[in-house]
Specification:
By secondary structure, this protein is mainly α. The chain has 10 helices and no strands. Helices cover about 65% and strands about 0% of the residues. InterPro entries: Homeodomain-like_sf, HTH-type_TetR-like_transc_reg, HTH_TetR.
């Protein structure tokens, strides 16, 4: 009589080509579409076209996945994207202001992601701590760039806050304006926030 062992990491060849990053990206999509409570293993597996068992190759449980989502959001996107683009302090600030597409109908998830993360942070201590840390890092990053440009020290915090608020609002607001008008508004805001002598 042959005894069949239960499938485990130790005795089963991995059949899925999915890695942790694909599960995290799928969780980001669900988060932006319908909030953190919608993230569950069954729904993610169905979206990815794999079994739930595939999930457990990469994560112990849903909590570990949510921690990975928070970690990735903390470490990613805004500052990393701007730094990758390079340039002097002024160029990096301009790139920061341009990080969220302004075109109507853009499928950019940045604004949705920001709203979803902040909604999650309202009732989850871990998410709240990550959001607060990200906000602090981003505002300090902007202040450092402004310092490099020679803005007065007493203006740095306020100007950095306004620039950060503008970047966040670009992704959240839905304007009934043409792309030309949105571009003109953006250029005027840029001139006000980061005047070039």
């Amino acid at each position: 009589m042959e005894i069949k062992l239960p499938e485990t990491k130790a005795n089963t060849k991995r059949t899925s080509k999915l890695g942790r990053s694909e599960w995290i990206e799928a969780a980001f999509r669900l988060l932006t579409e319908s909030g953190v409570t919608s993230i569950n293993v069954e729904k993610l597996a169905k979206r990815l076209g794999v079994t739930k068992g595939s999930f457990y190759w990469h994560f112990k449980d849903r909590t570990e996945l949510l921690e990975a989502v928070l970690d990735k959001w903390h470490d990613q996107y805004v500052i990393a994207k701007v730094e990758h683009m390079g340039g002097d302090a002024y160029t990096r600030l301009i790139n920061l202001l341009d990080v969220v597409p302004r075109k109507r109908g853009s499928k950019h998830l940045g604004g949705s992601m920001e709203l979803a993360m902040r909604s999650w942070a309202r009732y989850d201590d871990d998410a709240e701590n990550v959001v607060a840390d990200v906000d602090r890092l981003r505002v300090n990053y902007v202040a450092d760039l402004l310092r490099e440009l020679g803005f007065p020290e007493e203006e740095l915090e306020s100007r950095a806050f306004l620039i950060y608020a503008y970047v966040m609002c670009q992704g959240i607001f839905s304007f009934e304006k043409t792309d030309d008008i949105l571009e003109r508004i953006h250029n005027t805001c840029t001139d006000i926030l980061i005047p070039r002598d």
